[in-house]
Hints:
The protein is α/β, with parallel strands linked by helices. It has helices at residues 2-25, 45-56, 72-84, 86-91, 157-172, 197-206, 265-277, 287-297, 302-309, 311-323, 326-332, 368-379, 403-415, 432-435, 451-454, 466-481, and strands spanning 93-96, 102-106, 115-120, 143-144, 147-149, 181-186, 213-216, 221-222, 233-240, 242-251, 255-256, 335-342, 349-350, 353-362, 384-392, 420-426, 440-443, 448-449, 463-465. The chain has two domains: 45-222 and 400-405 and 416-481, Aminopeptidase, CATH 3.40.630; 239-392, Alpha-Beta Plaits, CATH 3.30.70.360.
Amino acid sequence: MKRIFLTLAVALVILTGVLVVNTLRFTPVEVIPQPVETTAITPDGNALAQQLSEAITYKTISFEDGNKDNYAAFSAFTQWLEDTYPRVFNNLILHRINEHTLLLQWKGTTGDAPVLLSAHYDVVPVNPGTEKDWTHPPFAGVIDDGMIWGRGALDDKSAVIAIMASATALLEQGFTPKRDVFFAFTHDEELGSDLGAQSVVKWFEQRNIALAWSLDEGSFVLKDILPGMDKDIASINVAEKGFLTVKLTASGEGGHSSMPPQDTAVSILASAILKVKDAPLPGGLDGVSQDMYSNIARHMDFGKRMMFANLWLFKPLLNIVLDDSTSGNAMLRTTTAPTMLSGSVKSNVLPATATAVINFRLHPRDTPERVVQWVVNAIDDPRVTVETTEAFPASSVAPSDNQSFADLASSTQLVFPNAIVTPGLTIAATDSRFYAKTTNAYRFNPMVITNDDLNGFHGTNEKISIENMVSAVKFYTSLIQKQ
């Protein structure tokens, strides 16, 4: 018996030693970029605020049922860009991809593969009935207390303005990049980019131009968003989730509601929805998600670092903990969201069919086909049919161990020196899903956001600080000078 206890004690000491040593070695990884001589730019915050304010007043709204003003606001906005940034349009080559998507080419001095900076200038409509809830009118572009208010302030006219202001400042300094630098400003990102980003990709393909990498929206510098983390997190996203929408149709006996059968189309449908909801797709820490959380954990206290430094032991527990939070669940797996229902046209009529729509955001490990089969198996009821109405897979994963990511990281650290820089995963859809088909696509807006700002995305009181606009220009000028 003593020998058993002794063996257990020795094993415990060895285990403790392994855990401690692994934790002590689990420290932040310093990004050491290739040295590049750059010139510091001091942006004029008031001028940037005025430019974004004016940009917001153009109602470049992407309506699901078609544009109500025949894109007059879009034409006026692109003309405003030319009038506001004449130095850019006079020195760069303008390629009109179509009437409303612009591609600007800044010729470099070498034949190195070019890079692409992209942003979209279309915006979503204001939810009807919420206009009164806005502190300032959504298209007035009011500047108040250091903030610029209005639709597009965060998503995504601020990036358009910051890129154009950065190019103007560098041109004033006489800067010329070594490689070609392209700027794409798309007009239909909120509708799926059928004519915007997809046409930009075709333009490059038709000319056999292979990009070194692209940068578009996708994440921000996150402040006080991750529980237990007091440092800002600059998530430069290297992939984005896919998209799948399925329609469930349940069949039953129609008729008068006074004599219902045991199962109606509605009850069959309700059961099917619950079966899908109660059978989430498998998830867990791996790939991009594991890289992101591990990079962040290197800056945590000793106890949390120990768990991430020893995933071979603690991964099952971490999966449970992260899965309990909404954001953690979205990072670890394909999410399931029932969104639409329809049934009878009258309260006392049993419908012959009832339908539901479920939306999935696909983790890179899952394909649309696999998820559809998962749904069919979960429901396991011949009275319910499953139809795919829209689908596209998750993007490819761009590397985070190359010079391109190092350039992005070092420019981020220049502007946000105390932020944790990490690769991450975009859980929504962006133009980058098309760029990623032909190049390494990265997703990052160099601006700080908090939980309060999240409500502004496609919601009410969208706004951005003047300080953020200044930071964005500093980031883009630094990044462009590395090219």
